[in-house]
Structures are given as structure tokens and as C-alpha cells.
Design brief:
The protein is built from eight helices and four strands. By secondary structure, the protein is mainly alpha-helical.
Length: about 210
């Protein structure tokens, strides 16, 4: 008799347990269906609700992404009153130049060469002629020029009339502070290849002959 009761109790317990599992599964299925099947637009899906026919809405004018507030105009443009500036927006240190060398090696040396003479495998095998940073035109260029070129790229001729973009913008790959670091390193490269005895401190000139 006790064995029969035990079996009935065990069977009842299993039924209750399976019932809860089944109910939980139904709740999950219902929740998933509601969220999965809810009315929504897929990416790039057209919409007749908006006048322009697009379901994806443009950003509200003046919207600024988190962490991208640009309060220092010169830092982000290299321009002062509409003209390219010739000063760094922050102090130049050994660490900054080391960072500039690193970023230059990664992004610039493949075309312009490690010394900036425009000699590289891209120059030898490609259809473009990378700039030589040691030519007089670029020796005389303000440091803001290099920041501007890294930011906006370089166009040859009128892009609307047969011109083309010979260097693309690196703004999406190199943050503004690193663009300035690269510009400072380019200036250091120029100085290293075009220095004279007068550029050497008097106390160090005695060591030049060693």
C-alpha cells in the first residue's frame, strides 16, 4: 500500500514539474514572438510615412556625438581666421614626437617613405607620386598644412572636371591629436634632413667631428 502511494506521489510530482516547465516554455515563446514580430522597419527599408520616403531618419541638425564636442577650432581644423596656422595647439615633447613617429610609420611611410622623401614601394609600383616632404614648397608650408592634408586628403585638379583624389582623408582613422603628432614629426624629419651647423647648439658643435 505504501509503495502504491509513493508511486502516485512521484507521478503527481512529475506532472506538476512538467507542467511548470511547459508553462515557462510557453511564456518564453510568447515573449519572443511578441518582440520578434513587432512592427518595425528593416535597414534601408522605404516608408510612406515620411515625405522623403526613408524610414531611417537623419540626425537632428546640431547633434553632437558623445565625446565629440569640438570647442577648440584650431585643434580640429588647423585654421586660424580661415588661414592655415603655423603653431602647434599644444606643447611638443619627446613623447609626442615618438607618438608621431609611430603613427607616421603606420599610416604615412607606406607611401612617403620612412624618411619622407616620397620613395616607397607604393611610389615604385603605384600610379601616384607621393609628396616629398623635403621639397622647398613643403619646407615653407605651415605645420597646419600637414594637419589639413591628413584630415581632408589631397585633390589633383577639379574633382568635378576630370580631377581626382590622390590622397584620401585619414580623419576616420587618426584622431586629431595624433594628426598633430604626425605633423610635428614631419617637421622634425624636415629639420633632420635640412639642418645646418647653425642649428646645432654651440656647446654641442665640438662633437660634430667625432
Amino acid at each position: 500500500m505504501q509503495t502504491l502511494r509513493s508511486r502516485r506521489f512521484a507521478t503527481l510530482a512529475r506532472l506538476v514539474r512538467y507542467g511548470w516547465v511547459g508553462l515557462f516554455a510557453l511564456l518564453l515563446a510568447a515573449c519572443h514572438t511578441d518582440m520578434y514580430s513587432q512592427p518595425k522597419f528593416q535597414t534601408y527599408e522605404p516608408s510612406s510615412f515620411f515625405a522623403d520616403g526613408r524610414s531611417s531618419r537623419p540626425n537632428v541638425p546640431g547633434t553632437v556625438a558623445v565625446g565629440q564636442v569640438q570647442t577648440d577650432t584650431y585643434l580640429y581644423t588647423g585654421m586660424i581666421d580661415g588661414q592655415l596656422g603655423d603653431v602647434m595647439p599644444f606643447p611638443v615633447t619627446a613623447d609626442l614626437l615618438a607618438r608621431g613617429q609611430q603613427q607616421f610609420t603606420i599610416y604615412c611611410s607606406v607611401c612617403h617613405g620612412v624618411a619622407g622623401f616620397g620613395q616607397s614601394m607604393v611610389a615604385e609600383r603605384g600610379a601616384i607620386v607621393p609628396a616629398n616632404f623635403h621639397q622647398q614648397r613643403l619646407l615653407d608650408a605651415p605645420i597646419g598644412h600637414f594637419f589639413d592634408v591628413i584630415t581632408n586628403g589631397v585633390y589633383r585638379g577639379d574633382p568635378n572636371n576630370g580631377g581626382y583624389q590622390s590622397m584620401f582623408s585619414y580623419a576616420s582613422r587618426v584622431k586629431p591629436e595624433d594628426r598633430w603628432a604626425i605633423a610635428a614629426y614631419i617637421r622634425a624629419l624636415q629639420l633632420s634632413q635640412n639642418a645646418t651647423v647653425d642649428d646645432v647648439p654651440p656647446e654641442a658643435r665640438a662633437q660634430l667631428g667625432r
